[in-house]
Amino acid sequence: MKKTSEKYCLGIESTADDFGVGIATFEGNILANVSDAYVPSEGGIHPREAARHHADVADKVLREAIEKSGVKPRELSIIAFSQGPGLGPSLRTGATVARALASYLDIPLVGVNHSIAHIEIGKLQTGARDPVTLYVSGGNTMVSAFDSGRYRIFGETLDIALGNCLDVFAREAGLKYLKGVPLGAALEQLAAKGKELISLPYVVKGMDLSLSGLLTAAVNMLHKGDCRLEDVCYSLQEHAFSMVTEVTERALAHTEKRHVLLTGGVAANRRLQSMLCSIAKEHDAQFNVVPLQFATDNGAMIAWTGVLAYSHGLVTPVEESYVKLRWRVDKVDVPWVK
Amino acid sequence: MGEVAERTLLKKGAEASLFLADWHGRRAMIKIRLPKKYRPEKLDLAIRTYRTVHEPQLMSEAKKAGVSTPTIFQVDVQNATIIMEFVEGRQVKQFLANFSS
Fold this sequence. Notes:
The complex is a heterodimer of chains A (338) and B (101).
Chain A: E1 8-13, E2 18-25, E3 30-37, H1 47-69, E4 76-84, H2 88-105, E5 109-113, H3 114-126, E6 132-136, E7 141-147, E8 150-156, H4 162-172, H5 183-191, E9 204-205, E10 208-209, H6 212-224, H7 229-255, E11 259-263, H8 270-282, E12 286-289, H9 292-295, H10 299-311
Parallel strand pairs in A: 1-4, 4-5, 6-11, 11-12
Antiparallel strand pairs in A: 1-2, 2-3, 6-7, 7-8, 9-10
Chain B: E1 7-12, E2 17-23, E3 26-32, H1 41-64, E4 72-76, E5 81-85, H2 92-100
Antiparallel strand pairs in B: 1-2, 2-3, 3-5, 4-5
């Protein structure tokens, strides 16, 4: 709950299918973290429909977050928003809400890099210090670590994201999204019953990896119908997770950092957690996994990163607040990290 | 690997461990791709075997193209081990670190 002397930041997240609002104090307490997800009736995220959803729920999510935090709008010091990377229509909807709020309340606006926000909230929630981070979600797959003023990308996917790979496969396998049970979790349950490892493409190129060929091979295997679905799920997970784990281990061996941080929606997968934990141990590093509500897209991470940026003199004038669809983490100076 | 009497761990990398050893009177590097417990045995063996076979081939190709690469002394595919010439020097990482400061 709020204290009277504290300063607050409201953060808006809207890079993809979630519209989230979080409220953080400047000391790093999260007072509210509310979000509403767009659930497509079939297939993946339709950018226009996701944006429409965000516009529809924005006032409801904002009100709920504000009520939950106990902070009055006039008590807010800054408005932060995810400026990229992400889907254009979704980003623009969140940015519009953020600009309107900042202008109306006449307080500074702070554009935040979504991927950096994932790392910062992960550090805040787990206590990880200067970690090698594996960020795996529906739209991102990257291994990063801080060096010389910025988060550097040590490895990343060359094509599709890990979460995307698993989701598309799950849909091909006829798995349905149930309220509270994401497709990835349904896939994980089936994979846990797999016994036979089917050989699939394993593509690590230097520090980067590729998942599209693996997805195609797994889908083909599924449609051929020679193997148990459980075995294909298991084999897909084992290959894909081994790839991201190998790249993370390389970054860890190279940087010799003492912490590993796992975040993003796929961080919820127990099998992936156990693999990452194994390599952390192997290199005498501490393994940290971000709690689910802060690992998936959320407003709190934007609010907290907004605080960090603003505290180091960074603000985003409205005329420079256009969204950046392909904004890489290594393009952003992070003066708050030493 | 009976010929190697003693070996010192130089660096534990992500993919392999590097040992410095005496190999028939020469200073040699022993590169061993140790099993990774996090991945299934079948996949682990396939990756380590494939890379142990291909690394010396690529180094040899590089040498043919005029790149100075260490001479390969021995390859033990079953144990995912490569014994090669030891080359004195600094890592690129160390070189760059000194370069920038």
